[in-house]
Amino acid sequence: QLIRLLLQYGYAGLPRDSRRAPGKTLLSCTRTSVLQRLDDVKAGAGPSSHLAWRILMWRLLPALVLVSCAAQEPDDSVVAEGRNSNSSRIVGTLDLPLIPASTSGARQPATKEFQGRGTRGRISESGTWSISTTVTHTRLRCATYETGIQLGQGNADCSSVRWLSAVQFGTRQTHCNSATLIHTGGDELAGMKDTFEVANCVRVVTRCNGAC
């Protein structure tokens, strides 16, 4: 009966719009605010019954504060998790030199290669590219990772790079339980003739969606 009383008058008597008022914090759930809500609920009672009501509520006030505040407070961590889980973000970049690949035998399309830190790949003058790279997930909950490349022109060590293409993603895998997986894939960049000739750097980009 006590629990029913607390739920009935500590929460059900509140106006609908005040139950989930934006910006509410636990600090706003004071004795005065709770008593004001109770007064609103019992506004129709006579003087004697109102006095008895207030005496009873002063004794039950600590429990009422907890019930009222708990009912209207959202879990900030859940809200944040929901926002994060619905958006992708860049979690890693790696800039590597792009060098001509060695060829032998019959005439083959010009190709450039990149390699370093668990990543290797190549791109041809036609725009076809491939990549193999290691991606590490550090959480138990699952997340989806994508890897892609971007071509640019810069110094020999790939500093001061002027990027010539947009990032294009070519692999996609879901990681769970702190898994480290090898991403292998690729795609084709359009309009690569002029870009291919001057590009000497590649940026490997890793993007994540979920519990990154």
Structure notes:
There is one protein chain. The protein has six helices and ten strands. By secondary structure, it is of the alpha+beta class. Helices cover 32% and strands 34% of the residues. The strands form two sheets. Strands 1, 6, 7, 8 and 10 form a five-stranded antiparallel β-sheet that branches. A five-stranded antiparallel β-sheet has the order 2-3-4-5-9, with no helix packed on it. About 20% of the residues have low confidence. 18% of the residues are buried.
Structural class, please? alpha+beta
The rounded distance between the terminal residues' Cα atoms is 46 Å
Rg (C-alpha, Å): 31 Å
Q: Count the helices. How many?
A: 6
Shape: elongated
Order of helices and strands: HHHHHEEEEEEEEEHE
Low-pLDDT runs: 9-31, 67-85
Query: What's the total count of β strands?
Result: 10
The share of residues in extended strands comes to 25-35%
- Percent helix among the residues? 25-40%
Q: What characterizes the major β-sheet?
A: 5 strands, antiparallel
> What is the average per-residue confidence, as pLDDT, rounded to a whole number?
75
Write a brief caption for the model:
The protein is α+β, with helices and mostly antiparallel strands.
